[in-house]
Structures are given as structure tokens and as C-alpha cells.
Amino acid sequence: MSDTVPVNSDSDVASIPTIFDPATCTRKGLCPVTQLRHDGSPLSSHSLYFEQHGTGPEKIVFIMGLNSTSFSWFPQVDHFGRRPEYSILVFDNRGVGNSGVPRGPYTTSAMAEDVVTLLDYVGWTAERDLHVVGVSLGGMIALELATRIPNRIVSLTLAVTRAKRDVRASLPSLKGVSSLARLLGMSDPEAKIPVVLDMVFPRAWLDAPAENDAQGRTNREVQTIEYRKRFEASRPQSPFGALSQMAAGLTHGVSPARLRSISSSIPKVLIVTGDDDYLVDPANSRHMKACMPEAELVEWAGVGHAVQVQRREKFNELVERVIGEGRSKLTDGWKSAEVEGGQS
Questions:
Q1: pLDDT for the residue 164
Q2: pLDDT given for residue 341 in this prediction
Q3: Per CATH, which fold does 10-340 belong to?
Q4: How wide is the angle at C-alpha 146 spanned by C-alphas 140 and 147, nearest 5°?
Q5: Is the bond into 84 cis (omega within 30 degrees of 0)?
Q6: Which residue ranges of the chain lie beneath pLDDT 50?
């Protein structure tokens, strides 16, 4: 099965709805991706929808998670896209949003190859010039990306994600599995919103007053409006795309040896998780830290799966710190442990 995005001209791309501020957008488009068989013949072709915001020297690529579009990075695009220090790249993974739906099931390694193609397409190819931020399935893709192009990465932020390849680690909690199954059978966005909210945020936080909200609304009320905007601006996801992305998450695995290699070959690695996550057990983050001695682990109390939304200011501050520390290590003469050991 293959499904191409029904837009192929500059005017068509410009007309694709977005929730991001057009004032900060420097480029939006469709990146063509062709996967080849071992004999060199085409296996499948699809396009990745992307947007670039900001013009600063520090380049950040944000990789979104399971069955979510790039719109889920709104708090980060709104923040970093306005800052003079940063240029950011967000995109829809294959199988969701305005990107194509190639043959499935997908793998995180193939989705990482998509990202390499996109980075090459937009010209982000220099050594030690890139900051990678991945959440959930996006963090799994980021691990595969870090295996492929470690010399291009300054910092790597792995949020609410995992590396273990086993059934216990890969499956969400019972509540997470139930929510994902219910969403597969839903087509009405208004019916989906409460299910999504209860899946990615702790109930106590949803029912609490929203911070600095002049109207005195709860977080649930505010997020219902935010998610409605995302759904209204997004193409509906096909069940095939959703299931193919789920397959990528279920089959993902990075060995302890590869984790150690990633940890030693990138100047700054951060692992961040909440302690109230229904989709990815925080124990997965602790496992990664045990295998990545150079990495930093941050755990937030009372935080669910959508860390970049629930703790938007703290998350943005954390990413800024990680970017600065990675750049400082390079300035101070940091060397990859593999290079120092003569392995690469």
C-alpha cells in the first residue's frame, strides 16, 4: 500500500493549513523520500511535510511520537521559532498528517532514514551542527538517527521513550492499550479529544486550574481547545498509518552496546521522563541511563506522557540548557570516546 500526499506544487504546499505562526516560518514544503530495494529498484516513495521556523545558528530538529503530527510541538515552535538564537525543523512522520503513507508496517530505522533524507534536503548536513529532540516514538527514531549520523549531532534529548526490545517494555499500561484501541475505532475528533487527553496527561493535572489563565479554566478545558485546533488543521490519519506506526514502536530495540556508543559519541545526551506516564513506563528511561553513563536523567513528578505540553516552560528551558551544554563541551575540546579510542 502506498499513499502520496495530494499536493505537489508550491501553491498547494503554501495552502496546507498550519497552526504555527506564519511570521516565524521561513520554509514549508514536501520532501520526497524514495526507499530502494537491495537491487537498487524502488521499494516505495512518499513525501514528508515539514516546516522551518527561525533563522538562528543553533539548529533543532523536533521528532514527534506515535500517531501525532508536528502540531504537537506547538509550545516549542512558538518559543524557539521567535528566539534569534535558533532555527527549528518540524515535520510529520510517515503515516500521519500531511506526509505520505508508504507501505507498512514501519520500523524506527526506516523512519530515521526518512529524517536523514529530510535533513539532507533542507541542507542541515554540517558536522556538529544539529540538536535532536525526540518524544516517545520520536525518541526511538532519534536513537536510530543518532546511530546513523552521530558526527552531525551536538545534543540529543530523549523524552518519554525507550530502547528495550521486549514485550513488557514495549507495551503501554492497560489504560494506554485501551485508549489506543478505542482511538483506532474513532473518526469524530470531538470524541477523540477526551480519550487523548486522559491518555497523555494525568487526570489530577487536567482537573487543576490552568496556570496564568485569565479565564480561570482548568487544564482540561484549555487543552480541549488546543487539541481541537490541531485536529481541525490536520488531515485525518488512516487506520493503516496508525497501525504501521504502532508496529514501528512495538518492534523497536536498541542494544545496551549501541546505547553506550551513542552516549559516548554525542557531546550531550539528556533523558527526561515523567512519573505518571500511561504509555511509556519511566523504568525505560532508567534503563537507558544505566546503559548511557555520560547521559543525564531528569524525572519530573506528577507529569504524564505529553511532557512538552504539560511542562512546556520547564521543557523549553531544559532543551535550551542541553543545547548550551552540548555547544560548550565542543568549545572546550570535547572528543568522542570512540575517536579517542581509535574506533572511528
A1: 85
A2: 45
A3: Rossmann fold (3.40.50)
A4: 95
A5: no
A6: 1-9, 340-344
Q: What are phi and psi of 49, to 5 degrees?
A: -80, 135
Domain ranges across the chain: 10-340
Residue type, 185: G
Report the 3 state secondary structure along 128-184.
CCEEEEEECHHHHHHHHHHHHCHHHEEEEEEECCCCCCCHHHHCCCHHHHHHHHHHH
| The C-alpha cell that represents 297 in the structure block | 536523567
Please give the Cα distance from 230 to 81 (Å, whole number): 18
**Residue 221 exposure: Cα atoms within 13 Å on the Cβ side:** 11
Q: What is the pLDDT of residue 173?
A: 76
Question: Hey, what's the cell of 105?
Answer: 508496517
Q: Yes or no: say if 17 and 71 are a contact pair by the CB < 8 Å rule.
A: no
Q: How many residues does the chain have?
A: 344
**pTM (2 decimals)?**
0.92
**How far is 27 from 222, CA to CA, in rounded Å?**
29
Say which residues have a Cβ less than 8 Å from residue 215's Cβ, sequence separation at least 6: none
Q: How far apart are the first and last CA of the chain?
A: 39
Distance (Å, rounded) from C-alpha 327 to C-alpha 131? 10
Q: How far apart are CA 201 and CA 307, in angstroms?
A: 9
Residue 88 buriedness (CB in 10 A; 0-12 / 13-18 / 19+): buried
Among the listed residues 323, 33, 286, the one whose alpha carbon sits nearest the alpha carbon of residue 169: 286
**φ and ψ at 246, to 5 degrees?**
-60, -40
User: Cα-flanking dihedrals φ and ψ of residue 39, to 5°?
Assistant: -85, 0
Cell of 4: 502520496
Neighbouring residues of 343: CB distance < 8 A, sequence distance ≥ 6: none
Contact 289, 297 (CB under 8 A): yes
Which among 92, 80, 84, 91 has a CA at the least distance from the CA of 322?
80
CA distance 344 to 339: 5
Three-point CA angle 261, 263, 268, nearest 5°: 145
Cell matching residue 333: 575540546
- The answer for residues whose C-beta is within 8 angstroms of residue 264's C-beta and 6 or more apart is 294, 336, 337, 338
